[in-house]
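One thing: could you explain this record?
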Amino acid sequence: MHPLDRRVVVPGLLDLTYVQNPHGAMGLFGDRPALLIALAAAVIAVLAYLVRDTVRRSALGQVGFGLVVGGATGNIVDRFVHHFVVDFIAPRGFYVFNLGDAFIGVGIALVVVAGFLPAARAADPA
C-alpha cells in the first residue's frame, strides 16, 4: 500500500488506511522522533514504577503491563527505523491507529482493572 491508500474491510464501519504518522498521539509533539522515543521510554519507566505492586500481585496486571510495553516498543522501533509510526486501522469516525496503539490502550485498561481487584498473588515462577 502507498500512503493514504484505503481498503474497505467492513463497509461503513472499518477500513485499512496506510498512514505515515510522524506525530505523537492525536498529533501531539509534532514531528520529532527523538523526543517521541524519549517520551515513550520515560512513560514506560514511570508506569513501571507506579504500577509495580499491581504487576507483582496480579497476573492480569502483568498481562496488561506487557501489552503496554510491547505496544510502546513497537511504536518506538517504527520511529527509530522510519521516523514515523505506520497507522492502518481506520474505524469510521475515529482516528487511524495501529496494533501497538491498541495494545497500549487495552493494556492500560487491564492494569487499571487489576488495580481495583482484591489482592491476588501472581503465580511465582519458583
Helices lie at 33-50, 52-57, 59-82, 99-116.
